[in-house]
Each structure stands twice: as structure tokens, then as C-alpha cells.
From TrEMBL:
It comes from the Eukaryota. InterPro entries: CLAMP (IPR032727). This is CBCO1 protein.
Amino acid sequence: KMAEFLNLTQLKTSLKETILFDYYTAGFWWAKEMNFSLIQISGFMGLLNFALENLSSKRMTLGDNIKELERAVTRIRETESEEGGDLNLFSIDQGKAVIDFLFSSLFQYYKAYEYLFHVRREDPVLSNE
């Protein structure tokens, strides 16, 4: 289901798709194990996607990505405040756990993800021809 949702059609032949599948699946199951509500899981998955898009599409450095993530969270909180929404999507402990997850999953391996998205690789050989 996750591969369908992410529109990953070449999991068996694409290292990039396999890594992305693993990244999102690990995040989803981690959030489930944390007993996050559906809204919290949605917000968490959005943060994972936001950070990864900053790296892949915008080619942000690690430092810039962390700063942008902080700004995005601040904007979300300000928007919720203006709309009278709930400012506490995550408790303090949950927020710390989310930050720890981001640092241990994406930010710790940032150079590897940069390589995945920005270094041209040779096409894989799929047959004897």
C-alpha cells in the first residue's frame, strides 16, 4: 500500500525507489509505535516529506534544511494560533522524539541522501545484452 501511495513502481530494480520506500515506511511504523493519532502521523509524515524535498528538489545543505524545517514548524504553529487551532500537535516528549527520529534517519545520513539524488549513476545492466 505504501509503494502504491508513493507511486513507486520499480522497487525491485531502482535503488532510489527502494531507499525512499524504506525511509517513509520506517517513519510510518515508528509513528505508529509511538501511538501517534492519525493527525499526528499525518503531520509527522509531512515533516519527513518536507525535509526530503528540501534535499532532493531544492538541494539544500544540511544546515539550511534544518533551519527551513524550523521555520516551517514555526509557520504552522503561527497559522494554527491565528485560526484558533491546537498548538500542541505533539507533546514536548513527542516533539523531542520526532527531532531525534529526523536526526537519526535523514540528517545523520544526509551525504548519502545527497549522493542518491544528485550524483549521476550509470544505468543498471538488466540483461546480458
